[in-house]
Amino acid sequence: MADIDNLVENLRREISICEDQLKSLKAQLAATESRKPPTKNGELPHSPESAPESADSKVSQWPLLSEEYERYGRQLIMPEVGLKGQLHLKGSSILIIGIGGLGCPAVAYLAGAGVGTIGLCDGDYVERSNLHRQILHNTYKIGISKVDSAIDYLKALNPNVTYCTDTPASRYLISDTCVLLGKPLVSASALQTNGQLNVFNFPARPVGDLTGGPCYRCMFPKPPPPESVLTCGEGGILGPVVGVMGVLQALEAIKLIASGNIHCRLTDQGYSDGERVSDDSQAPQGLIFSAYSSTPFRSFKMRRRRGNCAACSSHAIITRESLRSGSMDYAQFCGAISPISALSTDERVSAEEYAAIERSKGVNLSRNKSSGYGHILIDTRDKVQFELCSLKDSINVPYAEISASDASPHGVEELEEQEEHEKEADWLQMIRKMPSDAPIYVVCRLGNDSQLAVRKLKELGLDESGTRQIRDIKGGLKAWRDKVDHNFPNY
Amino acid sequence: MAEAEKSEAQDVITLKVEFTGGLEMLFSNIKEHKLSLPAKDEQDKATTVNYLVDYLCKKVMKDRRKELFVQDGTVRPGILVLINDADWELEGEGSYELQPEDNILFVSTLHGG
Ligand SMILES: [Zn+2]
Hints:
The complex is a heterodimer of chains A (491) and B (113).
Chain A: H1 2-35, H2 54-58, H3 66-71, H4 73-76, H5 82-91, E1 93-97, H6 103-113, E2 117-121, H7 146-157, E3 162-166, H8 171-181, E4 185-191, E5 194-200, H9 216-219, H10 232-235, H11 239-259, E6 264-267, E7 270-273, E8 285-290, E9 297-301, H12 320-325, H13 330-334, E10 348-349, H14 351-360, E11 376-379, H15 383-388, E12 395-396, H16 399-404, H17 412-421, H18 426-433, E13 440-443, H19 449-459, E14 470-473, H20 476-484
Chain B: H1 2-7, E1 12-20, E2 32-38, H2 49-60, E3 70-71, E4 74-75, E5 79-83, E6 86-87, E7 103-108
Parallel strand pairs in B: 1-7
Antiparallel strand pairs in B: 1-2, 3-4, 5-6, 5-7
Binding site for Zn(2+) (chain A): 215, 218, 309, 312
Keywords (chain A): ATP-binding, Cytoplasm, Metal-binding, Molybdenum cofactor biosynthesis, Multifunctional enzyme, Nucleotide-binding, Nucleotidyltransferase, Transferase, tRNA processing, Ubl conjugation pathway, Zinc
Domain Rhodanese (chain A): 371-489
């Protein structure tokens, strides 16, 4: 049955792609036909379909195609854009790095607005968990590369635009590249209910010129410690939050391009930023969005370029050569949390082993406080995740609470001080009241926090000087789902 | 200490201190804090943002993971400090002298998207 379902889904997906391609081809055909020059004697082109457009096809003296006047009409009549702005957009190229929650809405609006050339860069494939926010992809695109999926959508949206593709890179690498190429960078990020937006390196003056806009490194010369960095997969994200930020990115890009001030031209006399209307005393603005705050949108004055910035100052050490040669190791610079392996093998059980233990000695914590009947299962995920789904009889103690508990040994002064200021955490008191010989198992989402939690529980003395077993379930609930219970929710 | 502060109201500065971008998690999940700080530090110098950071660590932050807020004696990399909606670099960074009713915002940078 499952095989048939898969087959049906795959066929649906393929049909959808073919339909998209067909749509895109038809649109391209229409666009190309409308571009056909009139024949010498003023006769209509041969294609019978273009006959009704005869009036339009003669007026090639107009700077835009007739199709474009119609397509962009509502923005063309705005003073902020006008014909000049539209031509700037048409002549511009934008690289979109990441076609996720930000990139999808951003690129849809930019393609819609008529940015002439759009580069797309993402190494990921569409997953079901992307779809609540990554609005270019759909159910039938699951498993397809995000770049291909996006191009299908965008070609149908605006076939006049040229789309190109590339591979992904990190925020520092992107910023450094923009500085070296003299391009402004419209950067945004979003997590949970928050978003941030900055235009870096604008005006995009040469390296060493302190009147240029700050780059990402000016603002963040050192990367944050990797353990402080949450991803959308870990922290969660509301679709409209990341959508708002992506749309704002598109807006900033349109403002920059349509104004015509984006180009930083090197001349014999130095360089100029187009018409140079920007007031140098005015610092560029950044934006912080906080959906659940009483002031959801807050602008702030960004800093100036950093005098010793590694990328944009006269002391810069990042050059085109160092980028090209690959001598900069960006992954190492930012650090990475490698899969944790904090425990020895006898401190761990596999999901299958735990399943066997659970079957033979069911979890029962309340039956007899003095005997070692059953075992204790602690789930260290956040309360919200725990409420989504959990293993039978497990107790929820979020890792943040475990890690925040005092691990100092129970020295006399320590104890006295503790009693004065605060008593032991509720969860710890609760566990201490349970049978002290019941083994403790710890589980989390992926099997990292659970290991650290085992460590911490031992430091807190719950292993009763080594007489009680405390072990983690390897690979967490993901392993449980993969190896034991395929119906356990995959969120 | 709190008593001494209250008795000399003119020597106290009230501030609005805010946390966002997930940093509020380290401060009991409270985004907005109204704080009263002494106008002068122990050396009789005007209190600065550095003083505030130290004060937050010692008196306000209940979470034990201090390293997620400060490292090497200053706010850790990846946290943006805004003084009245301007990057603190424009105001003298940590040595900025606090003024009554200042708004100090600590933002953790986000990396999702
Ligand atoms: Zn810089």
